[in-house]
Amino acid sequence: MKKIIFALSVIIVTGSSCVTSLQPLVTYNTAIADNRLEGSWEQDGQEYIVQKVFNSELYTKHKQELEKSRKENNGQLSEKDKKDSVLYSKSYIIKYSKDGIQYQLFASMIKLNGRLFMNFTPADMTSTDTSGSENEINLSNRLDSHTIARVQFTNNNVMKLDFIDGGYLYDQIKAGRMKIKHETDELYDTFLITASTRELQQFLEKYGNDSRFFNKENSVTLNRKS
Amino acid sequence: MKKITLTTAFALLLVFLSGCLTTLHPIFTEKDLAYDPKLIGTWETENQGKKGSAVISNLATEGSLEIPGNIFSIKQKGYFITYRDENGKISEQYIAFLARIGKHVYFDYYPAEKKEDRKLDEFFGAHFVKMHTSYRVEILKDGSFELSQLEEGYVTRLIEEKKIRINHETDADNNTIITASTKELQQYLLKYGDEPAAYRSDKTIFKK
Predict the structure, then answer these.
(1) Do residue A187 and residue B117 have CB atoms under 8 angstroms apart?
(2) Are B25 and B179 in contact (CB under 8 A)?
(3) A6 — contact with chain B (CB < 8 Å)?
């Protein structure tokens, strides 16, 4: 199986892989809120805190910039800001810490053919130095992308995330058995899905229940802590 | 300057692409490589009065570096470049290849894994797609050389004015992402390689 550079990630658990997309799966007019997401979750000793965007520290941190943006637009929200506001009102921030670095992901959900899917994209990354001050970590010459997982609630306290198997998808595309807009570069082993949001949705409407895409190696089960 | 929304504020925290053309694909193929051993060494760098240094080594000598994909087979013809700021702190590291495209020689830079990167959570890190940046290289008579980076605005203006057909995508924040193939990128360089506006006005000077 081809090694996929962006799909080598260990998805919270060891040994799983995912695929990345340039476009988000979820937009302001398709996002749905689900109160079951909020709270503190745990997986293999790692804690993940899920908050609504508007309740998050990150939103508070950037509120001034949003206000400034609004003032520059005669006190009005631009069309994009309006859409973003709707999306934020239904989206979540997932916060966790590992090895002295604090990570925040922006997560939005959508329902397709009765199944829930979540879109993840990076929101913030900071490290704390010995004096306790926070420093933002900026990575130059990188493009932020999206990952996608199917979400299943066993009950209100157990959430299973099934990520798309990037290796399987790549093999299918390469063999000509599946079509979805993408870019690959053999020299640098790059694989990026460039399909539009609607195409991604159609793809998951078709394959959202296909166990070959969502196998157990790419699944994570989170248990509620509080 | 683009208005800051929460989304763009998020993006700005993570991606620093302003002004510099970044591409998903490299500008070279193996046959274009123009490895020059004279570039190996320690250099003093200067860009708009900002001084620093750069160490350029042969990529094959960097045993601990994570080398992507099929680059491994051409690593003898590649470079590993470490930039340090004026305080001696490592600022950026790249895997680089020198390639001749038409009458000019270009550097293709690709972010190398820094110590800091390796510490990153793999799931979080997987969301960042590494992009290529390219520079025209002019080697001067005294052995020093200058890098002129390709300008993003020039390409995006050509796209907006429908003066060029080059593969690209527009992301959710209306950023233009150049997804052109290596062949297309080379055609761009052959056509606009002599156009001063295709490059950023600030040059980085490398002196021994």
Answers:
(1) no
(2) yes
(3) yes
Residue B133 token pair: 């940046």
Structural domain for B103, as ranges:
19-207
Tokens (6 digits) for A122:
């990076």
Residues A122-169 have pLDDT tens digits of 999 998 877 878 888 888 899 999 999 999 999 999 999 999 998 899
CA-based radius of gyration for chain A = 18
- Name the residue facing A122 among B22, B70, B124 (closest C-beta): B124
CB A140, CB B92: distance < 8 Å:
yes
Torsion angle in degrees (nearest 10) through CA of B97, B68, B130, A150? 160
> How many whole angstroms separate alpha carbon A203 and alpha carbon B133?
32
Give the count of domains, chain A: 1
Count structural domains, chain B: 1
3-state secondary structure of B26: coil
The Cα–Cα gap between A96 and B199 comes to: 41
Q: Which domain holds residue A67?
A: 5-224
- pLDDT above 60: residue B81: yes
Q: How much is the ipTM here?
A: 0.88
Rounded Cα–Cα distance for residues B158 and B169 (Å): 14
C-alpha–C-alpha distance, residues A97 and A4, integer Å: 26
CA distance B101 to B86: 33
- A residues 16-35 near B, CB within 8 Å? 18, 20, 22-24, 27
How many interchain CB pairs under 8 A, A with B?
176
The token duo for B90 is 């490592």
